[in-house]
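Quick one, C-alpha cells below. Sequence please?
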C-alpha cells in the first residue's frame, strides 16, 4: 500500500514542480517603445515645393518644443513622414524602423485642434498599411498625406498606439508609446 501511494505521489510532485516553474518564468510581454525624439517632415505637393520639419525632443523628461512648430500654407496638400528615435541608446535607435517592422501592432493617431476662434483646419490621412488579415489591412501612420484648410493656428497631437494582438484600426485598444503636440501655423 505504501509503495502504491509513493508511485501516485511521485507524478503529482513532478506536476506541481512543473507548474511552479511556469509561474517563475512568465511569458514575456511586448514592451512599449522608448522614444526621445519625434520629427515630422512635410513636403508640399505644389510648386514652389515647401519642406517643413518640426521636432520634439524629450531627453531625461525635459521636453524641448522650441523646434516643434509647423508653418504651413493654406489649402495645400503635403506628404508627411514621422521619424522616431531613441537617443538614450548608443548608437541612436531608429524606433520608426521598429514600428514599421511591427506594423501590425502600431497605429499613429493624428488629431488637429484649432486655436479657439481660429478657422484653421488640418486633415491627416495615413498612406501606409500593415499586413493584418481581413478586415485589415489597417493604417500605420508613419507615412501620411496632410491637407491644410484656412489660415489660422492650432495643435497637431501625435499619438503612437502600441496595440499587440488587439489592433483594429481605431485608437482605443492598447497603450501609448508617444503622446506629443506640434504647434501649427497656417499662413
Amino acid at each position: 500500500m505504501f509503495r502504491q501511494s509513493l508511485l501516485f505521489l511521485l507524478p503529482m510532485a513532478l506536476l506541481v514542480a512543473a507548474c511552479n516553474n511556469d509561474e517563475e518564468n512568465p511569458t514575456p510581454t511586448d514592451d512599449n517603445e522608448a522614444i526621445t525624439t519625434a520629427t515630422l517632415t512635410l513636403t508640399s505637393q505644389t510648386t514652389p515645393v515647401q519642406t517643413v520639419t518640426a521636432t520634439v525632443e524629450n531627453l531625461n523628461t525635459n521636453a524641448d518644443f522650441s523646434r516643434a512648430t509647423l508653418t504651413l500654407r493654406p489649402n495645400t496638400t503635403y506628404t508627411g513622414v514621422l521619424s522616431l528615435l531613441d537617443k538614450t541608446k548608443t548608437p541612436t535607435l531608429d524606433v520608426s524602423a521598429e514600428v514599421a517592422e511591427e506594423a501590425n501592432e502600431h497605429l499613429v493617431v493624428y488629431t488637429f485642434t484649432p486655436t479657439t476662434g481660429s478657422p484653421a483646419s488640418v486633415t491627416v490621412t495615413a498612406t501606409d498599411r500593415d499586413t493584418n488579415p481581413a478586415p485589415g489591412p489597417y493604417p500605420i501612420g508613419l507615412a501620411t498625406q496632410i491637407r491644410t484648410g484656412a489660415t489660422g493656428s492650432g495643435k497637431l497631437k501625435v499619438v503612437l498606439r502600441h496595440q499587440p494582438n488587439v489592433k483594429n484600426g481605431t485608437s482605443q485598444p492598447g497603450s501609448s508609446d508617444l503622446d506629443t503636440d506640434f504647434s501649427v501655423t497656417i499662413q
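The longest helix spans residues 2-24. Confidence is low (pLDDT under 50) at residues 2-29.
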